[in-house]
Write a structure and sequence with these properties.
Blueprint: E1 3-4, H1 7-15, E2 21-26, H2 31-46, E3 52-57, H3 63-67, E4 75-80, E5 83-89
Parallel strand pairs: 1-3, 2-3
Antiparallel strand pairs: 2-4, 4-5
Length: 92
């Protein structure tokens, strides 16, 4: 299951991780986000122990969404060593 990441846990879970981290920025009211959710869960199971797969509810956790310029959801960011190395906006 994808890890629920909050503003309080983002730095420790994402920016300080020694593993690659994929973060899905989403909201409960977002239809395309609900389409992406099963894929995120599948990736979470597939990469367990190899990477961190997490989700940030942008309605309740706006600090890091703003910091990384999340203006449209779903947006998926991939982090390595605390740096953004990949970005996917929308459902592709």
């Amino acid at each position: 299951m994808a890890l629920e990441i909050t503003d309080a846990t983002f730095e420790e879970t994402v920016l300080k991780s020694d593993k690659p981290v994929m973060v899905d920025f989403w909201a409960a009211w977002c239809g395309p986000c609900r389409m992406v959710a099963p894929i995120i869960e599948e990736l979470s199971s597939e990469y367990e122990g190899k990477a961190v797969i997490g989700k940030v509810d942008v309605d309740n956790n706006q600090e890091f969404a703003a910091k990384f310029g999340i203006r449209n959801i779903p947006t998926v960011l991939v982090f390595q060593n605390g740096e953004v190395v990949g970005r996917q906006v929308g459902v592709a």
